[in-house]
Fold each of these.
Amino acid sequence: MEANFIKGIVNHHRKNLLLTYTLVLIEKLGELSIPFFLVLSIDGLIKQNFIPILYLVVVYLIWATIGTIRHRYDTKTYTNIYNQVVFDLIGNDKDPNTSKIAAHATLIREVVDFMEFDMVYIATAFINIIGAMAMIATYSIDVVLLCLTLMVPVLYLSKGYGLSMRELSQKKNSELEKQVDVISNGNILETKHHFNILRIIQIRISNKEATNYWQLQLVSLVLLIGSLLIMGFKGAVQAGALVAMWSYLLTFLNGLEIIPYSIQRWSNLKDIINRIRK
């Protein structure tokens, strides 16, 4: 049901979204290519060859230009989507509960934000993980195998994290649906209780995020140290290759960090769409 809701929005705005996500893809591929040209520049400097630096400058400027165009285009696309979805909601909602309608209008903002930001993050994670491993493979297959091995605990931890965040998101959204009514009633004690519940839920969410962050950093440390040891045991390594390897490892880790975040956001999105469509 959640996928159908998103699919309906995508079909209605498919041309604009296709252009947006195409720009995202080109931008991320350009970002992945920068370390490669950086390696060429470093190796070129060692040999007193400055031509590769020009290649790096050109690629970097193209990447930055595409990113700028995408950011400017994004705002127009997603504000139009938000307005259209909200107008449809208000026009079709037969529930006389003003508090729920107001809450749903706010929650729709999160749906649009998911499409504008989170889908980009998810696409970025996929491109970073696949692209980084493909580039790392040109330097060391053993490091790629280490990357694949460490994805197993990340996926396992992300599953538990997603279940916990789904429960907390449901509680938070349930409270938000009551907010307008609670404030309108003018009961100070009831209002304090409502916001105190939201505060407690937010603290629990933050604690879960902090724990997940710590676990991911441990995985990152194992990968970085393990990769350095693997490269070190291979003997002499060019400076440019080490810089590129380190850059692609960080890109890969950035992709891994988005996995639990994406699961959290999808869990929240499912709950929001269920509420909107009731």
Amino acid sequence: MTDSGAIGLGTTLSDRYELVAEVASGAMGEVFEAFDRVAGTKAAVKVLRAEYLADESMRRRFRREAAVLKAIDHPAIVRLLEVGVEADGLVFLVTEYVEGETLAQRLSKGPLALGEADVLVDSLCGGLGAVHEHGVLHGDLKPANIIWPTQGAPRLVDFGASKILGLDRLTATGEISGTPAYMAPEVLSGKAEVDQRIDVYGFGVVLYEALSATRPFHDGHVGRLMMKIDAGDCLPVDAVADVPGAIARVIAQAMHRHKHDRHSDMGELKTAWQQARQG
């Protein structure tokens, strides 16, 4: 048994996963590097925050993240290993541990080269396409949720804000799940039905930041930030970084304020990117 209010390094979950280092901390919980005593390997363990254990909506989001990871088998998506509940009610999920750094950490050193962005587009468009084929939207694309392994292509993590098409409206209860700076205008306003194009938009923002090491929209006031996003009030990426015009136009279309003017899905975005790179 664990003390759900005092989870920390040295804690062992399911008599198997020993937490050895804190990797990240988010709105829903903490992510730890763990040692799997049975397999003798590393694992990543995400633990729901103690204050949310009695919150059914948060527990539902946590279970959904596990269900999404379990359903999708794609090299760009981290693999789910186990979902656990301790005797005291503590809830956690275990995924494979990916050695590397987040895209956010990588961008703190400067923007990506176009060749590196090609790898990002190829991997994430494929992974998100697989997610969308299962009727799921990621809903929280941002550099901190993309792991760039020491070996291999980028991987997508954190489906805590994911939504199931036909079952959810992201703003139906007035709650916004995700990170506003990367969210599509229709998500922030709740004025339109959402579909896979919210992830097209989010990935467009990620690409803008990846090639410029700066976000397209800036404002310390959330209300003003949302107004800028709704108006599409940002400079084109080729105005703030050395980016070919053709690539800048692909990113601008992905980030279009009107969803019907964006690429229809991740496959179309990938094709447009490849054509721009070849042209």
Amino acid sequence: MMNYLSVTQPYNWSMVHAFLTRRAIAGIEECGEYHYARYFDETDFYAVSGLSHVSNEGLTSSWFCATYEPEAQRFAVQLSLQNEACREAVLANIARVLDAQQDPNTIAQALTKAGFTPEHMTSGLRLPATWSPFEALIRAIVGQQISVNGAVKILNQWIGSLREEANGYRHFPSATEIACCDTSKLPMPKARQATLNLAAEAVQAKPLHDSQTIQDLLKIKGIGPWTVNYVLMRGISHPDIFLDNDLVVKNQLARFALTPELAKPWRSYVCIQLWEHANT
């Protein structure tokens, strides 16, 4: 059965597509001209779907492919699940990742209040996200002080090797897998290698369900405000995160006469707009 997600207009698919394509992990994610597909662990959605009592023994990776249909103003979503009861929760997360249903007028008004003029505002600006807060956390730690391309290269090599050992699983590794993973050969400082394991252990004990559990990550050595705010922004799509300690944001702020505080509660989109200017 085909599923459909309505998309508010205007919708800047090109910027969403660019974000997802640049960060795609081979074997887990795949991007085409008008689609985004990935494998995922559907058991992450069992609790919210009232299925916490259901055994996950014998389950394999689930999959979806969301194809943007601009004329119909929607995504057509092919979805392969093993338990149909979590369908709505999975579709809601796909819509979140694609930021398909944000009100563009609300965002435009917030950017205007912050000080952007119309010629400096991206039409259909969206906040593309990461599949889960845990995945956002691992991506953020791996990406500390290196380029996006450098981080994706490490993730491709590391995650690819983990998946080869995982009996057919093709989704992003769980906290349990990474907690016991040997990170000593990853091309990064030893302190960062240790942070990956410590972060996974913390999430294994307390899953990242909300802003407070994400804020608690600050207790872990090697995790600071930038990493936590990135997880809030990309991992749960928090709309009001302003990364004022981000180097690109700082550099772009020097170009514009902005007061980001005036964009509350939509400051995440101020960051996104500044990053868009840096990319063009």
